[in-house]
């Protein structure tokens, strides 16, 4: 068993912990600061988008629905168009990780592995038309102009006076790209704010009534606003001040609920409720999918998932995994970036996980999920069915690799639309049997994130597969797979948004309902106090 920190074995113990306290910095991003080299991987910077992917991105929802229903005659086209036209209340920017799988009947499909409320992907996406010199030509800017901008206009009268900011705790390449696009879109400077979990003195705080304030130099703040009455001087400092934030773009991903309240006056995209309802909570996401599938069942549509069991206590895990023939996946529900995911392919793997969990696990509940492997050793579902990986086109050494597909979508006036996509492959080739497998995560895990000893994050870009003319052909996926993946992503995001609406009505966070859905006291104790804006248990 190898969990999702395989590059350096010393890092395994740090799956759920930041290693050291980090001090967040704040700086100014001004209109015209955009530099494409700062916001794309070098491989993606000059890559040419594959024509098939370009064709997919150009499809409107009617053509998508028509094509999908042509291949899936059981699907209700009218219901699918309703889904594709859905306007979310909270979950306006989403990404799903998908596997292209098949079964013993050669029925091919895309399945959802998890959904992400702060998805990466822009830095890995070749530009449409190979144009990225100006921010306005990019998918970064499209996200701001079609999602963030309209939301600002919709909420304009409700927002506090203040400046604009981007807050983040990782992936500065994309976070600052969004900051620069906001500056270009609004034509005002924007503050980029690092907001780390273990920062003892973070440069961001919340007022009692839910307004985000940022600490920055007076000079930087006055570049963002001419209203000096907004500034709160900091004692014993000639230069630093606190300033309220009117709206912020959030790329805070590591336990964001520990330092961002559910209910805020400052506009936050995405708000924390989208994380709690499933965007960064696999346990609640699984229940949101179940609720949505109940609604969709009579319309020939479904969110496809590996068979999943939630609310599993540590002591119960051996019972479930043993019943699955020691072929399973165990997940910590609240981790991200590939952390807290354990592939089990033997009793030895299970024993290693249990040893890890007793020493390191911070939570009470886990998820046990069917493992998608090869045709001879995937988990078998309760109904006798199983999925196995389609995998990449065999390499020149005749190796097939597991690969996933990240599909990023954003909410527009016409419904969710695809924004960016890329793929990642596993480090080791997929084997036909498990006889000599010593590193199951190396063969099955696709996440590129690497957590360093100092708590910072890196990325193993050698396994990144772009949607360009070279890499896309090795993926072995088609236009119909992209359409299927997009529809699965929209269905999953819609399910999570509808769960968020159940949990947050008006300015009231229903902790009683949340506690009944998410029965994990250790997790609930992590939530930032909501200052009386929730329904208490």
Textual characterization of the structure:
With 537 residues, the chain is α+β, with helices and mostly antiparallel strands. It has 16 helices and 23 strands. The protein has helices at residues 42-45, 51-58, 61-71, 77-84, 139-155, 172-186, 218-224, 272-279, 282-296, 317-323, 347-360, 440-444, 471-475, 479-503, 511-517, 521-524; strands at 26-29, 93-102, 109-116, 163-168, 190-194, 204-206, 212-217, 232-233, 240-251, 267-269, 308-313, 328-331, 341-344, 365-370, 388-389, 403-412, 415-425, 449-451, 457-459, 464-465, 504-505, 508-510, 534-535. The strands form five sheets. Strands 1, 4, 5, 6, 7, 8, 9 and 10 form an eight-stranded mixed sheet that branches. Strands 2, 3, 15, 16, 17 and 20 form a six-stranded antiparallel sheet that branches. A hairpin with a 6-residue loop joins strand 2 (93-102) and strand 3 (109-116). Helix 8 (272-279) crosses helix 9, helix 8 (272-279) crosses helix 14 and helix 9 crosses helix 14 (479-503). It is globular.
In terms of per-residue confidence, which ranges show pLDDT below 50 for 5 or more consecutive residues? 1-20, 531-537
Q: What fraction of residues sit in β-strands? A: 15-25%
> Helix content range of the residues, please?
25-40%
What is the terminal separation in angstroms? Answer: 39 Å
Task: Indicate the radius of gyration in whole angstroms.
Answer: 23 Å
Discrete helix count: 16
Summed over residues and divided by their number, the pLDDT gives a mean of 91
The main sheet comes to: 8 strands, mixed
In total, the number of strands is: 23
The general outline is globular
Structural class: alpha+beta
């Amino acid at each position: 068993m190898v969990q999702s920190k395989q590059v350096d074995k010393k890092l395994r113990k740090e799956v759920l912990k930041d290693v050291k306290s980090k001090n967040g910095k704040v700086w100014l991003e001004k209109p015209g600061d955009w530099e494409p080299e700062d916001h794309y991987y070098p491989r993606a910077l000059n890559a040419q988008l594959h024509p098939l992917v370009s064709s997919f991105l150009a499809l409107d929802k009617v053509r998508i629905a028509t094509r999908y229903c042509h291949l899936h005659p059981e699907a209700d086209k009218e219901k699918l168009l309703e889904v594709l036209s859905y306007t979310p209340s909270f979950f306006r920017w989403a990404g799903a990780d998908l596997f292209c799988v098949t079964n013993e009947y050669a029925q091919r499909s895309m399945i959802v592995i998890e959904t992400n409320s702060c998805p990466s992907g822009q830095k890995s996406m070749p530009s449409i038309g190979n144009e990225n010199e100006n921010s306005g030509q990019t998918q970064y800017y499209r996200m701001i102009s079609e999602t963030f901008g309209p939301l600002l206009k919709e909420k304009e009268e409700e927002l506090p006076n203040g400046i604009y900011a981007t807050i983040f705790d990782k992936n500065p390449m994309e976070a600052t790209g969004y900051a620069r696009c906001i500056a270009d879109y609004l034509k005002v400077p924007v503050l980029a704010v690092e907001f780390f979990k273990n920062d003892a003195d973070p440069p961001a705080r919340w007022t009692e009534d839910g307004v985000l304030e940022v600490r920055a130099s007076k000079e930087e703040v006055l570049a963002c606003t001419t209203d000096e009455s907004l500034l709160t001087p900091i004692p014993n400092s000639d230069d630093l001040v606190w300033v309220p934030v009117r709206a912020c773009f959030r790329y805070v991903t590591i336990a964001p609920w520990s330092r961002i309240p559910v209910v805020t006056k400052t506009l936050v995209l995405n708000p924390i409720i989208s994380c709690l309802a499933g965007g960064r909570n696999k346990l609640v996401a699984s229940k949101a999918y179940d609720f949505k599938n109940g609604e969709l069942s009579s319309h020939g549509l479904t969110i496809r998932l590996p068979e999943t069991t939630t609310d599993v206590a540590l002591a119960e895990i051996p019972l479930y995994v043993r019943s699955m023939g020691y072929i399973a996946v165990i997940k910590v529900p609240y981790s991200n970036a590939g952390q807290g995911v354990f592939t089990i392919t033997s009793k030895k793997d299970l024993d290693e996980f249990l040893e890890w969990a007793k020493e390191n696990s911070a939570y009470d509940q886990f998820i046990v999920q069917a493992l998608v492997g090869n045709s001879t050793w995937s988990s078998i579902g309760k109904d006798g069915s199983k999925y196995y990986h389609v995998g990449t086109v065999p390499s020149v050494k005749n190796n097939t690799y597991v690969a996933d597909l990240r599909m990023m979508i954003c909410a527009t006036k016409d419904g969710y639309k695809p924004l960016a996509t890329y793929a990642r492959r596993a480090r080791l080739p997929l084997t036909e049997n498990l006889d000599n497998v010593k590193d199951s995560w190396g063969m099955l895990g696709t996440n590129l994130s690497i957590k360093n000893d100092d708590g910072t994050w890196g990325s193993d870009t050698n396994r990144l597969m772009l949607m360009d003319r070279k890499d896309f052909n090795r993926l072995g996926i088609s236009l119909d797979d992209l359409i299927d993946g997009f529809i699965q992503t929209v269905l999953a995001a819609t399910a999570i948004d509808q769960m968020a609406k159940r949990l947050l009505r008006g300015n009231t966070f229903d902790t009683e309902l949340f506690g009944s859905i998410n029965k994990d006291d250790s997790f609930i104790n992590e939530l930032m106090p909501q200052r009386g804006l929730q329904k208490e248990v």
